[in-house]
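Board notes (copied after class):
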Amino acid sequence: MGTGYSPKYSATPLRDRTIGGHPKSAMGGWNARVFGSHLRFAQTLSIRSTTLDDYFKSGERVDFIKMDVQGYELHALRGARRVVRENPHIKLLLELWPYGLKQAGAEWKEIIELLRDLSMDLMFVTTKGVMPFDARNVRSDAAWYVNLFASRGRRGNPRLPGSRAEPSTG
């Protein structure tokens, strides 16, 4: 098929909008951001925004959310609290990029706190497997990021293969 969709599972595509912390219209204009030692300018455009809580109806089943929004993960998660609370078996896969989060006005510890407030257990996804989240492994340099897997009910599980590995960098 080549689409990435499985006949057993369906994905919900979002069309003509972006996901954020609250519904609004993102403004157009010019945006300047520093990436490492480089200053990049990009023209932005206006696009409608919504939250996952507004997109999905109350009580609608959501099994999995994959999120990589270049530092805006905290904003998107804030707008998905209801969906995560209502779906006890939901799984989340999201990028943790402390440098990008800071550029977006957030701190990486806020994501961890929000996920734990939602009773999520956290695992680093590494090139050698998964390992329990450990804040001592988090770095804030621009090139470092890791994927986080969040789910409920993993506490007490034995260490998984690769559990002593450091999270991989970009």
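Comment from the instructor: The longest helix spans residues 108-117. Confidence is low (pLDDT under 50) at residues 1-7, 25-32, 156-170.
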